[in-house]
Design goal:
Blueprint (H helix, E strand, L loop, with lengths): L1 H4 L4 E4 L14 H11 L4 E7 L6 H14 L4 E5 L5 H6 L7 H17 L3 E4 L4 E5 L13 E5 L3 H10 L2 E4 L6 H17 L8 E9 L3 H23 L16 H6 L3 H6 L4 E3 L1 H15 L3 E6 L7 H15 L9 E4 L8 E3 L9
Parallel strand pairs: 1-2, 2-3, 3-6, 6-7, 7-8, 8-9, 8-10, 10-11
Antiparallel strand pairs: 4-5, 10-12
Helix pairs in contact: 2-3, 3-5, 6-7, 11-12
């Protein structure tokens, strides 16, 4: 893969179902297994899989297989999911999402790191069992937790010693700073070593010609947002204590303003120099050591344009950021996009 050859840190794909908003990737593990077979260094990242929609024994086994097939290159990202139509289709109540998520992640962790595991929880019981194959990474692959707007969810991830995945699109700068502060403080208070890894996910439109980059960005970002609008429409008539404030999501997406998003660094777009400046600003706002995950072809942008942007990023943007300070990564999302990030000179063995 091109991203592997150029030294990008990881490739990442989300799980969504039934709509053009990410619904072409219902099984990230299958996609990433194909990536692993064609690459040597780039990490493969689930960003994220949804424990609520599958038995944790099955999910833990699939991810363990992926860690083996990639020779220990898996980062396992887990998410609660947030689209009411997905929960309805899988016949899972929204009110159970938080408990199912927490239980599913912990079961996977125990199955990877222990033998003869038994579990008797709120919605699944089993044991004792020993999961095979054992994961290559010991005691288990790095675990990431996806968060959207909740400082409480970020704090819970920090207390558990997990890493964090965040999409800044629907969160204010101040709100995201509060979320990251809650994560870092909870992680420190719990005594976990290190600062934890934080992945911030952005769409990125890059070209030598500024007007051409911004024309593509406006067109394809609006197409991407249109798909998201359809996917979140059910929140117009749904309420859940597990998702406080999500009823506002429909209006937030409907009011999307590209110019405001660009000015607020919620979308990265322009020449290499301009995108370099945006990433430097993001780093200043949210702290060093972040992984900036870049989606280069959202909204069904032509492959040729996305490939040009990936090459341009590796050549002209990534060298501005030492790999020890910011790791730029790659994210495939809707329609199986290919993604990449900063630190393109450092191939780690997402």
């Amino acid at each position: 893969m091109l991203a592997d050859a150029l030294g990008f840190e990881h490739v990442q794909i989300v799980e969504h179902h039934f709509t053009p908003y990410g619904g072409y990737s219902p099984d990230p593990v299958t996609f990433l297994a194909a990536v692993a077979a064609r690459t040597r260094e780039i990490r493969v990242v689930t960003g994220a899989v949804v424990p609520a929609f599958v038995h944790p024994l099955k999910l833990a086994g699939k991810l363990a297989m992926l860690d083996n097939l990639s020779h220990g290159r898996l980062d396992a990202g887990f998410g609660r999911a947030f689209l009411p139509d997905e929960f309805a289709a899988f016949q899972v109540p929204l009110s159970e999402s938080r408990r199912r998520f927490a239980e599913g992640v912990e079961i996977c962790r125990k199955l990877w790191s222990e033998t003869e595991v038994s579990w008797h929880g709120d919605w699944v019981s089993f044991g004792p069992v020993t999961l095979l194959p054992r994961t290559v990474q010991r005691p288990h692959p790095p675990i990431f937790v996806a968060a959207t707007t909740s400082p409480e969810s970020c704090a819970a991830a920090g207390r558990a010693g997990h890493h964090l995945q965040v999409v800044p699109t629907v969160t204010s700068r101040e709100g995201l700073q509060e979320m990251l502060a809650a994560y870092r403080e909870a992680r420190r208070a719990a005594g976990h070593p290190g600062e934890g890894r934080i992945q911030l996910k952005y769409t990125c439109y890059l070209d030598e010609d500024r007007s051409r980059a911004l024309e593509r960005a406006r067109r394809f970002e609006h197409n991407y947002i249109a798909k998201m609008t359809g996917a979140v429409a059910a929140w117009g008539g749904v309420r859940s204590d597990d998702y406080p404030g999500y009823e506002q999501l429909v209006e937030k997406v409907r009011r999307y303003d590209f110019e405001a998003s660009l000015a607020g660094n919620k979308v990265l777009a322009g020449t290499p120099a301009e995108v370099t400046e945006q990433i430097a600003t993001v780093r200043e706002w949210f702290g060093a050591g972040l992984s900036v995950c870049l989606q280069f072809n959202p909204g069904c942008m032509p492959y040729e344009d996305a490939e040009r942007a990936v090459r341009l990023f590796a050549a002209e943007v990534a060298p501005a950021f030492p790999a020890t300070e910011i790791a730029a990564e790659a994210t495939p999302e809707t329609n199986a996009e290919t993604a990449a990030g900063t630190g393109a000179q450092q191939a780690v063995a997402r």
